[in-house]
Amino acid sequence: MCIARRLSSVVLLGTVVMLGACASNKVAMNQEEFSQAMRVSGQKVDALLEKGNHDDAVLVMVDLAKKNPSRKEPWGRMAKIQFDAGDYAQAIVSAEEVLQRDDTDRTAKSIRAVAGLRVAAQSLADLRNDVELKGNARSDAASLASVMRETLGEDVLVPPAELEARKKREAAAAARGKARAKSPKAAAENGAQKSAAGGDPFSQLK
Known about the structure:
mainly alpha; elongated
């Protein structure tokens, strides 16, 4: 699965690089024509995403971008699809294409920043967990990862699904710990009550 994703990313990156050289010689669409094409392509993308077919959804936008090389919208939709699929490296590439056409696009800036942070956080985690990595490199990775989490928050660096699963595991572990802590106390209280009742046969009559 991982190999297949990497191969598809390589193929897509090659397609992206070739777009500049293979731009169509046809007359560019006017605004009305482009809006209609974007709407139709968006509907196709939505249908493909509902089936979980992210790669074909991206290719729909690649085709539209090829036909409209000066437009940022197809690249923006590509970046969103790739980000949501966890393909952060390609999301960064697509966000950069948006910013080449509009350097004020805040959505593209956000995708580029958060995707970059998640790639960096994963790389740091890999370094920190590498038992064969010794010396300053490992300690620096651990320190930087800690600073990033404290500064930006866990929800920025960790994908929402993974973060939610981790929170559930931590909550379940905390609940089990509380249950174990209460058990000896409850047993002691029950024992004390029974002892008191046994020492005074008339205690129940008071």
